[in-house]
Amino acid sequence: MHHRTTDHRGTHPATTGDTRTRRPHRLLAAAVAVTASAGLALAATAPLAQAAGPHVVDGSGDAYNDWGDEGTLSRHSHAHSNATRLWQSVLYADGAKWRDGNGVRHTFTKSDIDGHYGWKTASATKWWQAREDLEDVDGVVGKETFGAADDFLSGPHANGHVDYTGHVRQIAFKRISGTYYVKVHGQWKKAAYNRLG
Questions:
Q1: Number of Cβ atoms within 10 Å of the Cβ of 61
Q2: TM segments (predicted)?
Q3: For residues 58 and 136, what is the distance between their CA atoms, to the nearest angstrom?
Q4: Average pLDDT over residues 70-89
Q5: How many angstroms separate the CA atoms of 164 and 64, rounded?
Q6: Structural element, H or E, at residue 91
């Protein structure tokens, strides 16, 4: 049974007055200006490149409302990622069921947590959405689905641990400096949307 938490710069070189040396100095000044401009242009793009790094599942304050503003996970959006692995951990904790080609339901197991949003994950997500009585039962993890799941988070506790209390089992994530981490082969990895493993 779920336990809901209530706590919720450039400089210009000087030119000389001597007309015999003015032209070489102008050429040198132009070369320096072009080089400086190129350096400034590269420096200006460096923060943008860093800002475009891996987008991660994140949060602040009490964990119970961390995920309602997250991105989308589906077979076509961030389908191979540690963010998908985080979501699959939720499915595992809740004992979600996926339907095979013959209509037989199977329990989502720990070995299904692979970071690949395939048909098993989509099917188990539909099951989870229906069980939580969500409006959208489409197999896509968007703001509504993430927002419903975060109601069952508690923490962060010591060392950044955040617990998810599922219907079947409790699982742990970490949240360090606002970034969520998920266990991958025994190691804590950022729950990034564009990185797997």
A1: 11
A2: none
A3: 23
A4: 97
A5: 9
A6: helix 82-93
